[in-house]
Each structure stands twice: as C-alpha cells, then as structure tokens.
Amino acid sequence: MDIKGFDDLFAKARMRLLQLHYDSQTGHLGGNLSCLQTLMVVHHLTMKPEDRFILSKGHAAGALYITLWSLGKISDQELRTYGAEGTSFPVHPSGNGIPGLLFATGSLGHGPSLAAGLALSAKQRTQPHHVYCVCSDGEWQEGSCWEALIFAVHQKLNNLTIIIDQNGLQGFGSTQEVISCSDLTPRLIAFGANVQQGSGHNSASILNALSQKSTDRPNIIVLNTVKGKGTHFEGKIESHYLPINKEQYDFAQVSHTHEQVK
Amino acid sequence: MRRELAKEILANWNLPDVFFLTGDLGFMALEEVKSTLGTRFVNTGVAEQNMVGIAAGLAREGHKVFAYSIAPFCYARPFEQIRNDICMANLPICLIGNGGGYAYGAMGPTHHALEDCAAMSALGMRVLVPAFNEDLGPMLSSFTAPTYLRLGYDARPPKTAAPAYAPWRQLLTGSRGVLTALGPLGGVAWGALQDLPEESRPSVWVASELCTQLIPADFYDQLSENHPLYVIEEHVAAGGLAMHLAYAISQNKLPCGPLRHHYALGYPSGRYGSQSFHRAECGLDANGIRQMILAEL
Lengths: 262, 297
Description:
Shape of chain A: globular
Structural class of chain A: alpha/beta
CATH topology of the largest domain in chain B: Rossmann fold
Oligomer: heterodimer
Number of helices of chain A: 11
Distance between the termini of chain B: 36 Å
Largest interface: A-B, 31 and 27 residues
CATH superfamily of the largest domain in chain B: Thiamin diphosphate (ThDP)-binding fold, Pyr/PP domains
CATH class of the largest domain in chain B: Alpha Beta
Largest sheet of chain A: 5 strands, parallel
Strand content of chain B: 15-25%
Low-confidence stretches of chain B: none
Number of strands of chain B: 11
CATH architecture of chain A: 3-Layer(aba) Sandwich
CATH topology of chain A: Rossmann fold
Number of domains of chain A: 1
Number of domains of chain B: 2
Structural class of chain B: alpha/beta
Low-confidence stretches of chain A: none
Number of helices of chain B: 12
CATH architecture of the largest domain in chain B: 3-Layer(aba) Sandwich
Largest sheet of chain B: 6 strands, parallel
Shape of chain B: globular
Mean pLDDT of chain B: 97
Mean pLDDT of chain A: 96
Strand order of the largest sheet of chain A: 1-2-3-7-6
C-alpha cells in the first residue's frame, strides 16, 4: 500500500473513530485522535505478522480497536459493542480475547517493561520479530517507564521500539505546566536510547522515524501531535475526558473531511 | 531457605525456557544459579516494578519465570504490576519473597513482610509457605500459574525428619484440640510441644499453602466443639491463615471450639530486634506457643 492509499484508509478510520466515540458517548477522544495515525502506520505499513504490539496508553483503546477493525481483525458488529454492557471491548483494553492484545493496560507505565520482556524473549530465542509499544507523554512521569528504559538500554534491546504520542496535554494540565516537560527528547537521549522525532499527523514522517532503527540500542520515537485534532476541543484538556454531542460530532466530521480534501 | 532454593533451581529448573530474574538480590546464595543459567539469569536492577513487567513479558512468550527479591520488595512495591500484568493474564510466574514475616529482624520494619500472603492471595495467586527445606521441590513441581513463594527458615526440632510434603500436614498427634501453624512456625510449634503428653497437647498441623480447598478431611475430623482451634502465623490477622480457616469451617458448617490466635502484631513495644524478638512479642516463639497451650489445661 502506498502512502496515498494508506491516507485514504486512515481518513476512513478516523471517521469511524469519531462515530465510535459519539455512539458510545465515551471520553478520551483527544488521546485517541492524537495517536490513531501512528497506530495505523505501525499496523498497516510497518509491522510484520510475527511482530508484537503493546498499547501502553490504554486509554487509546478506541484507536487500537479501530486499527484492528481496519485490518479486518474486529468486525463492525463487535465494534458497536465498545464500552457497552457485556462488551469484550472496554474503554481500556482487557487483554482478554482481543486479537493482538497481549495485556490489560490502562494504568500508565506498564507497557515499556512488558514490551522489554517480550523483546528480551525474542533475543534469547534469536527470533527476528520486533516489539512496538505506544505510550503517552504524560505516562513518562511514571518511574516504571524509566526503569524499563534503563533495562532496555543495558540489554541492548534494539528489537524494541517505543513510540511516544507527545500531545503535550495530560489529565489536569499541560505537561509543561504540570511537570515542566514539554519535550521528552533530551531526557530520553540522555538515558541512551536511539531517539527519533517526527510528526504524528504525517504518515511519511512516522514511517521515516520508524525506519531509523538502531543496531544496538532500543528505539524511541517521539511524535509531536495535537490532542483532539480536528475537533471543537482540539488542543484542550476537555478532549481528555468529555464525550461529544451531535453538534460537536458533525463539526469534527466536517473538519476531518476538509482536511482530507486539502 | 534461599540456598535450598538455589539447589532446587539448579536441579530441576535449568531448562531452556526458564528465566530467573532478581531485583539485585541474592548475594551468597544465587551465584551458581547466575553462572549456570547464563543469559537466562537476569539482574533487572533495583527496579521491582520493571522486574515484574519483564517477567510478564517473558511469560507471555511462553517462558516460565522466577522473580526474586526480599519479601517486602517482591510483593509490595510492584503490587499493581503483579495484579495487572501477571494475574490478569494468568501467567506462570513465581514471585519469590525471601525472608517472610519478621525474618529480616533488626534490619527494621521496611524489611518485614507481614501482610504479603493476604495481599497475594487476594489477587488469586497461589501462596506457598514452605515449612521445611525439603518442601521446595514438591511445592514447585506443579507451578503453572501465578505463584507467590514466601521463604523463611526451616525451624524443625533437632534430629527430626520432615514429613513428606503436603499442603497441610500433621506434625504431632494430640487430643486437646488442633493447632495449625503457617509455614516455618510449624517447626517452632513442633519443638515447643513435642515433649507434652498427647492428652495435654493439641494435634499440630502445618499449613504450607494458603488454600483451604487443600485441607484434608483428617484435619476437619479432629476439630471439636470441646477444644480450641489454635492458629499461629507470622502474618497479620487480616486475610491470614486464621481468617481463611474460619471461613472454611463456617462454609462447611463444622463444629469448632474457641479460636486462639497468635499472629503478627506489628511492633507493640515500638522497638525492633531479631526475628526471635518480634516473634516473642507476638507470642509466636516456642515459649509463647507453649504457654498458649498450657493456659487451656
């Protein structure tokens, strides 16, 4: 699939994500929109069938479900149960019975260690597969992320790529306001990772960053993104929590359609 | 028991798909495990949350994993990783907490593990508390699910042989009620009561798994309304052996006399010392156990 073909597919997935959140009246749309393109690029254009994936920012489960739906691994009927009573697709993934999901995530800071464990296993068995893990930027306030990074650098886990969705907003403020860290890049470099940067809203940029893999260090890709991109609460903290009403849903659909046309 | 653990790992677990992780502990005990397992022995550093996450990642790929630290650092610091990453995925990982209860003595309260069995049991983990060195082999032979192994010191009386392993075992016969001890305290009770005549002592049992479904019928048959049920455990009362046992007795609608319960009281004097010091403060030493029995005569 070429980039153009992929971007058409991504546009369709983005519309379906909006519908998912509107129909289910669930929050976390902002952090789902900021990483959807990344998840789509990783799954459609990068991962081999044997590769592993962990969504450490479990609150973006909707974006992952949509990605799996776009791959034909989840049906539309299943998707319609998202967040509903008796669903197998809760707002944070259970890790149980969903193709490609290995763990229950949603409490931040778990994914990097889990991914490092998967990568260590592959190294031990000299298996060629690669492990991808998507985190949020606020998540790196959890000490366990740095524990995992120290370990991964020491073990030379070059078969591990951690992607950070750096949208700059967290639960109750911006990352700059809360913890004086609007860009994680220098800290990650200081810890010894192979760090690449890019735009999380540009498929070519994401692909380029994913292609710059180290031969002896874990890879971290910091993707700058906009939380709630293309919605009425784009770049606002409200996009972390609030569901959208009909008017806001219509606005987002028009906004994304215009962006696609451009 | 950590040296016996090392022997057990070397004897039966040096297998291609087995990893042994440590949170930077095991000096003068795990050196041979380290050299023998090679790249499958991984010191994950002073980072217990990461150790448990790494263990979960490995186990998700089909490895069996041991993850070792001293007991309090093993279960308390990475509690959420144990819950979310191990238990929710039902992975074959054995967390090994060395020095349960007051075993680290004068190292101070941060190094004691008094509520570990309750916490791990509440997550649905299999909780193993060996009483004797020989227990480790049979205990771990069926290790297939999330497991917590609390290591202590074998405290059997001199010149005695440990009975063959069973999750619940009788150590002494007696006709004045039943005493049940958690793990190593079984050996302490055995030594404290073995010279009393049978008619003056309770039968003495040791529980090495905190699972009441494993209690044999023989144990229940010895309960009586006329004599106390004694429970001793180097663990807090909440969620410990006595509470598990009381629940089982109630569920099975069995007759039972009054409960006499000695357990970890924390630090009643506000002072710290050896494991023996703390056990004595809680009536968990040989003298305290003996006095508890003699008081009923």
